[in-house]
C-alpha cells in the first residue's frame, strides 16, 4: 500500500495560482467574479489523487442509498477502511439522496468518512432536482465536518461516475456550494476543504471553474517588486513533490474493468458519458 499523503503536501489554490497551474481565462469578466480572498484560497485545495490515501480529518465517499459499499471509489474506501466500516454503516439505516452521514475511518488515514449520496443525473435532471440534490450533498458534508469538530475535509467527485453527472456541471455546483458556505461564515473552523479527483476529466473541470468562484488575489501593482509575493523556496520544493496522479481505476475484487462509454441524446446533441467511476454508485434496475 502506498504511503499516506499528509495535509501539508496537498497544494492550496494560492500555491496553484502562483505556479500557474490555475489561471484566470483571458475572456472572463472580472467584474462578475466574487471578491478574491486570500483566506479562502489558502483554505481550498484541488488535487488528483487516491482519496483513500489522504491523511486528513475526513473524506467524503460517493455512496449509494444503502451505505453498504459498492464498486469504484465507494468500494475502494470500504476495502481500505476494513469490515468495521460496513458494520457501522449497517446501523445507520441508509441515507437519502442529497444528504450525508458520518462514520469513523477505521483503517483509513482519515479519521472520519462522510458518506454522501449523490443524484442520478438523468433521472433527477428530468425532475429539475439535480443541482439541488448535489448541492445538498456538499453542504450537509460540510455541516457534518463542522458539527464534529473536524478541521479538514476531502471530497471525491460526487455523482460524476456511473450516476453520469457531467463533470463541468458537477464542479460548478460543488464550488458554488462551498463558496456560499464560506461566505456565510459557516466554515470558519475548517482549515482545509479539498476537492480530490481520481479522473482527469474531473480535475480539468475544477481547474476550469475554480477562478469563477475563487479568483486569484492580484497584487495592487504588478510592476512593483515589493508588492508582488514571490513563490518561496519551500513552495517550489512542494511543487516538485506534488503527488503523481492515479493511473488505474479502483476496481472491486473479482470485478471486470468498469470503464465503459455510453451515449445519451439531449436535444439535438449526442452526449457521450465516460463511466470511469462506474460502480462507485449502484444503479437501480431501471437505470440499467
TrEMBL record:
Residues 274-288 have a biased composition (Basic and acidic residues). It comes from Delitschia confertaspora ATCC 74209. This is A1pp-domain-containing protein. PANTHER family: GANGLIOSIDE INDUCED DIFFERENTIATION ASSOCIATED PROTEIN 2-RELATED, MACRO DOMAIN-CONTAINING PROTEIN. InterPro entries: Macro_dom, Macro_dom-like. CDD domains: Macro_OAADPr_deacetylase. SUPFAM superfamilies: Macro domain-like (SSF52949). Pfam families: Macro. Residues 31-214 form the Macro domain. Residues 241-288 are annotated as: Disordered. Gene3D superfamilies: Leucine Aminopeptidase, subunit E, domain 1. SMART domains: A1pp.
